[in-house]
Amino acid sequence: MEDFTTRTLGTARVWIGMIGSPAIWGIHFMLVWALVEGGCFVGVGDQRILGVNAVQVTVLVATVIALLLTAAAGIVAYGNWQHARAIPPGAGMIAVRAAERTNFLALVGLAFTVIFFVVIVFTALPVFVLPPCDV
Question: Which of 21, 10, 19, 12 is nearest to 98 (CA)?
């Protein structure tokens, strides 16, 4: 039987679960801003795709991709949390500390996933409520 310390998670997986959602939001925010500003500047805002403003369609596609990536980061955080809870009885102090640290980071990652999922939706919402390109 392998002990908990040999089954520890990689550092990258723990950090992806924790800061994946905020990083995705930051990239989404900058991308949406660039799409709206650049699209309106070059005249893409005058184009229609299936009767919908082309800028709105591109923002919608970017938002859906960001939401899927945020959900993936949440799934990684959930897996980290499940792993941290699976510490066997009688594990050593080092293994217990590692599991506690992973548990905390996973819970923070889960909270960030929920928060930034909502933030990504609210970041894209003005494009659909207000006209993206002022005439």
Answer: 10
CB atoms within 10 A of CB 75: 14
For 10-56, the pLDDT digits (tens) are 788 888 889 999 999 999 999 999 988 888 888 777 777 777 788 88
pLDDT tens per residue, range 63-78: 999 999 999 999 999 9
Burial string for 43-62 (b: 16+ CB within 10 Å, else e) reads ebbeeeeeeebbbbbbbeeb
Cα torsion angle, 86, 112, 17, 120, sign: positive
Quote the domain boundaries for residue 59: 11-128
Asked if residue 110 belongs to a domain, the reply is: yes
DSSP for residue 4: G
H helix or E strand, kind and range, residue 124: helix 93-129
Q: Report how many domains make up the chain.
A: 1
pTM attached to this predicted model: 0.83
